[in-house]
Each structure stands twice: as structure tokens, then as C-alpha cells.
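Batch 3, record 17
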Amino acid sequence: MANTEREKQLIKGLQDAVINYKVDEARKLAQAAINEGIDAYKMTMEGLAGGMEVVSEKFDSHEYFVPETLLCAKALYGALDILKPHIKAKDGGARGQVVLGVMQGDVHDLGKNLIKAIFEAAGWTVHDLGRDVPLAKFVDEQMRTDSDIVMLSAMMTTSMVGMKKLIPMIKEKNPNVKIMIGGSPISEKTVEEYSADGTADNAPNALREAMQMLETLRKGLATA
Amino acid sequence: MEHTVIFQPSGRRGKFPAGATVLDAARKLGVGIEAICGDNLVCGKCKIKIMDGNFPKEGITSSINHVAQVADKDTKILKDLTARFEAAQEGEERRKIQRKMDKLRAKHENLSDKEREENIRLACGVKVSGDLIVFVPEASRTSEGIVSKKAGKINVKIKPAVSKVYVELPPPSLEDPTGDYERLVAGLERDHKVKGHPAIDYRALQQLPDALRAADWKVTVTLWQREQIIRVEPGKVERNIGLAVDIGTTTVAGYLTDLATGEVLATESMMNPQVRFGEDVMSRITYCMLNGRKGLEELQRTIIDGLNTIAERAAEKVGLAPADISEAVLVGNTAMHHILLGINPEYVGAAPFAPGMHHSFDINAERLGLKILPAGNVHVLPIEAGFVGADNVGCLLADEPHRRDEITLLIDIGTNGELVLGNKEKLISCSTATGPALEGGEIQYGIRATAGAIENVKVEPETLDVLFKVIGDEEWSNGQRNMGAKGICGSAIIDAIAEMFKARVIKKNGQFNKELSHPRVRKNAKGMDEFVVAWKHETALEEDITITIKDVRAIQLAKGALYSGCQIMLRKLGVEKFDRLAIAGAFGSHINKYQAMVIGMYPDCDPETIEFIGNAAGDGARIALVNVDKRREADEIARRVEYVELALEEDFNDRFGEAMQLPHMFDRFPHIESILPVEEAAQEIEV
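Prediction for the assembled complex:
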């Protein structure tokens, strides 16, 4: 079904509201879409996620930095809160599920929150365990939700070290699960050393990486 | 097999076994090469050039083939990646591998193709495998830091823990064969009213019989707290000295102090030798975590060796021996404190950050391995909380916000930024992760404040002409003269970013102004925006010195951490503003308070109320050294200060984000409004 003029207008409006971090505008347009019976899933994916994609590009090109991205995420959540209850379960099926949390001993969750916003905007189901998360909780949550990817965040090298122990714990229970690690002390070197599956230096890149992992996972399952 | 390695231009030479890195060789010979990352092939500061050819004067043949690459994990990864790349089919997977390889190379080699061709290598990345002549380029050489941690003025009553008293004793006879110690105690009580039988330290006891007889039973006794005899010297000795040391993550500064007058006799500072185990506190704690007890012992030994060097050098300056130092007072952040005492720092490194103990601690010097007077005492100041350590207590002793009516905001800027806010009613503290950027770390052309570092920058707003000053040169640059600039130090990075902001080279959000067309505003080889501070002809380098967008971002993060910390502290204390701002830290004293406010390092305030208090941590250590009552006071304040864990604050991320803008996303700066750029049609922000 082609987008109607009104849909196009709302999508563009939501995109702009996210890009220019206009919370009220984003909420207003989301409410309008609901009132007018327009597909909430489409608004989320094309409007909010579409806007966030532009934000990602701006981040990559150094036009936006953390403060702007935080504000964009706020606008996004403003609209998402309104749209989410109207999204039917089947709509989200194509995307993956991720368990997300900050390592034990670490309470810095800015990076983790940005990841959450970007992934939720892209239609992923995010099981956010918060910060200072005990190792076993990651394992349990992955088992409980059967998530495709576990994402571990650490800002301090001291809490990063816990990943070395945690990654085999998760893989032992479920060898298929992919593990992404991130945070300021983490490099490709860490990924290799800790046998993780990937990292990214910012939230948009993390999403790109995760999309590819999901693809590989699903392909793997299909051929199995 | 051993090979000859000669360093130029210093001409130092030595023989080294195959397998030693060039950087190891340099260190053994005392050739100063910058190496910030601790031999990890990361910082790219230790670039050297391997000379090629036969050098008859030196009698050796040097060749690039005489070095072997240090095999590190990354080269292995790269090898694997290359294999995978070759095996992969054209497509997304292959492109992905390619991206990974490029990233890895760029990150870890830190060398351009041109540099590789010119035989430039990282000194930590190549091993000796034959005779070598190594040229150390200007930019890689370390020079004595000028941000010496100078001793400040202290105003304190002299009441040291250690006192020296002179006694003349009646010699023993067959009629009076009383033991030497008992004889001494009787004399001390008779002449100096030393009551209650002072104990004698084991080492002092060993000296006692000879010392008493060496000068006809006339001796000088060194007493600690008037309750322990720690030294007995023949004859009359008046000189009574102590050592106060501030153990910083990066710099260690020692102050040899006359305990009778409080005067500093000699100042001696050095890089913290633990730097090779990691640049910041966290990486050193991690080193202990990964290497267990042995790692901790290694780090402890390293700092104690460093302290011994300081003691030795300082004593030598005034013609004394380190064993003449009767007492030492040490301060340092919590991690430095724990490592010094050999207490596992692991638990301080992660939430909930509980230290091994808060209280101050006294330990015998010999037991700690400190080579001052073996019976001497070492006093370590207390810890406030988690990351706010004994160094901060030192700052409080020096600045005394706890005795003032007005509200002080005290900022100690180092690799970590510690904040204290309050007055005699109440004090709160917090720690912010400022990182090394404000001191020039993680900045492309950032160097320490040494000769040749750019220390001030001015940007003409109309023409974007840049004038700058380098350390060691009184004159400003004029655009023509070769200033021999080697890089930019912390104070100048703040200057440069403030000036770039005022001249609208960068916007409030840190972004480069795309509408500007000027040769100084350009993109670098990696496509990153940058601003030329010094043209090649003004530098000692073979290239222009610039500030990149990445540098701006690093500063935004650092100053955002400080500013949001200030903001949350004000709220926690329930006040709108502070009455005075005290900036501590060796680096702090060199910044321009207006420029720092322009970039928003701290909230708006009357610049007149900003005071630079220098290395207050070191001053505090001296205060506690010369006045024993201050140690009790230190314990009291340390317990009183309430610690705020910023990251636990609900709105911390938001406040942090807002504070990353220049000078701040919302807050106004009435005191410097006239020098701030007028905001272009400010975008309305709803929150």
C-alpha cells in the first residue's frame, strides 16, 4: 500500500522532530497518527527510526555529538511511548531481540541508553538489565528470553575484565548467541582476546553490526 | 648475542641483547623518549628513525633490517583478517573485513606509509636484532616538565611529630654500670621532661652504644611524638628534616622540608614510574587484577623505588643523606594510596568503590621499604571516599574550606577531577572522569607542558590569524618566525578551543562552521575537520599543528564531566551558587580562567573570586608534615565530607550531555557575556 499524502506528511514530521530534537512536536504528531488511525508500526519504523538514521549519519560526520543524540533519543521516546501500545505483536517479528546491560561494578550507562534508544527505534526488542548487573543475570536473561544477541557495556577497564569470565558463561548455555561488547576501554583487541563477536564505537554502528549478526544467525538456522 | 645501539642526537650508546625493544634500550641509557601508553603501540608518541648505512666514526653498520617487529596480538589478528579477506567472496562480508583491517592498521600502527618508507618506527614496536643508530626526532624527545609541582606558601604553626633533643649524660662507671638505654631515658626525663619511658626503635638501639661513646656521651636524640626514640646521633645536631610527597597518577613531587621552620629545602619531581603499567588509575588497577598479588607487588615496588629516588636526589641537593630524613608524609589518590601500601586496589576500582580503609595510617619506613631513616615513620593521609583520596584531603588542609563561612567550590584537576563544595557547616565531594584530555592526553598534537609546547593561543576573529606563545620563549609568534613549536599543552588546548569558539570556527555544539572558507579551516587526510594553529614553518615538526574535531570532542567530554559535576553538587548542597572557586592541580595553575569559563569548564562566577591554589595536595602533605595536629584534623574532615556518586544521580546523563556544549546548552554566563559569541538564532529546545 502506497503511503497516502497524510502519512507521508506525518512520517516527514516525525523524522524532523527526532532530528531536531523537538519532543513536544514528536508527541503531537504521534498522537495525531493514532487519532487518525494511521499504522503505528509504519510511523515508528519510517518516521522515528528513519529520523534516527539521519541522526546516526550526523553523528558519523561529527555534526552531532553526545548531547544532540541524547536529545534526539528523548524526542524519539516521547513519540514511541504513544505509538508503542498500538503496534501489533506480529509487526515487530522481523527484528531481533537483545539483552543489554552495564557490567558489574560499573554504573556508567550513558552509552547503554543510547544503544537502547537506537535499537528500540529500529524495532528491536530490548531487554535492558540496567547497570551494575551481576554476571549470572545476563546468562539467565538470555535463557529466559532466548535473545539473539547479548550486549555488554563497560566504561571502566576494571569492570570490562568481567567480560572475559562472562562470555564463556553465556556461550556455554547457548553457543549460538552472539555477543557484542562496547564502551570506552574496548577495542578490536578486546573482542579477539575475550572471544566476543563484535564491537562498535558508537550506537549507530552497533546497530549496523547487530543487523549483520542477525542475518548470519538466521541464515545459519535456515541451513541447519 | 649483544648489539650496539647508539642514540642520536644525544650520542649515548650501549650494548643490548637481541630482543630488547629500542624503547627499553633508550630507557636504560637515559635517553628520554615520550611513551605515554606504556609500550602498547597505541599512543604513537615514541616515533624514532632507524638510520641506514655504515657509520665509520661510530664503527658500526646500522640498518632497518637490524630491527624486528614486536609481535603483538594485533599483528596476529591482522594476519587472520588478511587470510579471511583473501578467502572471502566479493560482497558485504569482504567489505566488512576490509573495514576492520583498515581500522586496526590506522589505530595501531600510528605510522603513515611515508613514515614507514623513511624507516620511522615506534620505539616500543621494534626489537634490536643487530647494530643500530637510532635518531630520536625532536617531537619524540621528552624534556623536563615545566609544570613542576612548585611548593605553595603554607601558613601553619610548626609542631612536627619529630623533635630533636640534645642531652649530655654521665658516663657509666663500675659504680654506676646502668645500661645505655636506661641512662639515656633518665637523661631525657631530667633535661627534657620526656615522661613515661620512651620506647626505642630496634635500629636506633643498634646504633646506641657507639653513638653515645663517639662524642663523649653528648648526643642528639630524635624523638617521634615524644614517645619513641628513633635515632641517636653523636654530638649536637640541629638539622631536622622531613619529606612530603604527593604521588600523582602522572607526576610524583617530593618536598624536602625543614621541620624546625617549615621551609622547603628542595623540591624533586618525576614522572610516576608506574606509568609504564598504564596511564590512568583504572589501567593500573586492572594490571593488579590480571596479575594478582605479583602484579600489585610489582607496582608497589615501582613506586617505592621512585620515592627512594626522590628522597635521595632531594637530600643530595642539600648535602645530606636520605637517612637524615626523619619522617615522611605521603598523599595520593585512593588507588595510588592502596598500591603504595600494597593493599589490593581491585575493590576500589568497581562499584561500590569501598576503600580498604579511610583512616590515616602510620608505618615504619624500613618495613615499607622507604630508604629514609630506617626507624622513621611514614604517615599516609586518610581517604574520603572511593575515588576521593588522600590527595584531596591534602587540598582541604591547604585551602581550608571547612573553616570558612563562604561556600567554596574546590576543583582539583588531574586525570580524575575531584570536586569539593561547601563551607564550615557541610562539605560534599565527588569524582568526575575527566580523562587526560585537559592535560593534553588523547589530543592529536597534545604534549606535556615542556619546552617547545604551545601554551597560549589567540585567534583574531576577523582574519582568523593565529598568534601563539611557546614555553621557553617570551615573545609571541608573528606568523613568520619559526617558534620551534612541538605540540600543544593542556592550557593552550583550552585557549585554542575557547578562541575557536569566539571566532566562530566552531559552534556551540562543537561542530565546525561549514560556512567558513579559510585556509586554516580544512579537512585532514582522514577527512576530519581541523583548524591550523601553527603552520609547518613555525614548528619543530615536519607538519602543521592543528586541532581536530576529535580533539574538540575529547575536550567537550572532559569539561562536560567537570561542569555537570559542579551542577549536581550545587543541587545536592541546596545552593544556587558558590562564593569562591579554588582551582588546584599543577595544570590548573596554568589555565586562563576566562578561557576556561568560555568553554564551560565550570559554572558562571565572578572571575575575581577564582583562585589558583597550585599543587594543594602537596601543600597539604607539607602541612601535615610540620604540624602533627593537622593529621587529626585531616582524619576529622575526611570522615565529615559526604561523598556523592554522580553516576547514581537520576539525571546525570542529561546534565552531562547538556554540559558538553560550549559553554553549556542552557546555562547563561553573565560574567563573560561580553566576550561570548552572540548566539545565532538559537534553536528552541524543548525538554
